[in-house]
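tokens incoming
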């Protein structure tokens, strides 16, 4: 078997490099990245406002305690002094039968909110969201029914 001559190998490597560079430049100029998003700016603004809402809830010292009573999820929302937080808008989000279900929470007493969960046995990942006066708290709950 004969060895390729070094005089032929160098131009072959150079041509391969130029061909690959040309292909990469063409791909970069003509294709759209799969990562790009047309609404990236508005989503970035929403992300920043969400961070501000979370920080406001943290500064206020909001805490959330949950209990399940006869298929009803009861949420107790308190501030850093243990006082109930009234007037918040609360919702629960969970997967139910392959769809995202949103359950609004009703305030039944000062700082006590409740929502009726669908009757379904098993484990459920639930996202509880509360918002009042620009402050927001989000919690993930894993319930076993």
């Amino acid at each position: 078997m004969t060895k390729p001559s070094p005089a032929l190998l160098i131009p072959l490597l150079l041509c391969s490099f130029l061909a690959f560079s040309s292909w990469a430049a063409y791909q970069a100029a003509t294709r759209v990245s799969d990562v790009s998003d047309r609404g990236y700016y508005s989503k970035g603004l929403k992300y920043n406002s969400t961070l501000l809402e979370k920080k406001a809830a943290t500064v206020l010292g909001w805490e959330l305690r949950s209990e399940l009573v006869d298929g009803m999820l009861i949420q107790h929302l308190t501030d850093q002094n243990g006082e109930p937080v009234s007037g918040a808008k609360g919702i629960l989000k969970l997967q139910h039968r392959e769809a995202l279900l949103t359950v609004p929470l009703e305030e039944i007493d000062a700082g006590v909110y409740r929502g009726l969960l669908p009757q379904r046995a098993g484990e459920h990942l639930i996202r509880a969201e509360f918002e009042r006066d620009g402050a927001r708290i989000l919690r993930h709950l894993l319930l076993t029914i």
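note: The two ends are 73 Å apart (CA to CA).
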